[in-house]
User: Fold Dolichyl-diphosphooligosaccharide-protein glycosyltransferase subunit OST5 from Paramecium tetraurelia.
Amino acid sequence: MVYSPYQPLIDPKHYSNLSIVLTFIGFCFLSDFIIYQFTKQKEQRALTKELAIGFFTALFLSSGTVFTFLALGLYF
Assistant:
């Protein structure tokens, strides 16, 4: 049986770029959510749109945070 070294799916030299891009996209979704909350009246808001924007905000910000930790060498 021949073992090969572990190869990560994403090259570690791209971690810093991914952290910047994913965090930026997450903040764009966050700003869209905040603008949506302040510009719409309570009766005009849709729960499905709020949940969708919140889901993508959480997805991108958490992924950006993970890649930030990996780029800094903080493995958990």
Summary: The chain has a mean pLDDT of 94. The chain has two helices and no strands. The helical segments are 15-39, 47-72. Residues 29-76 form one domain.
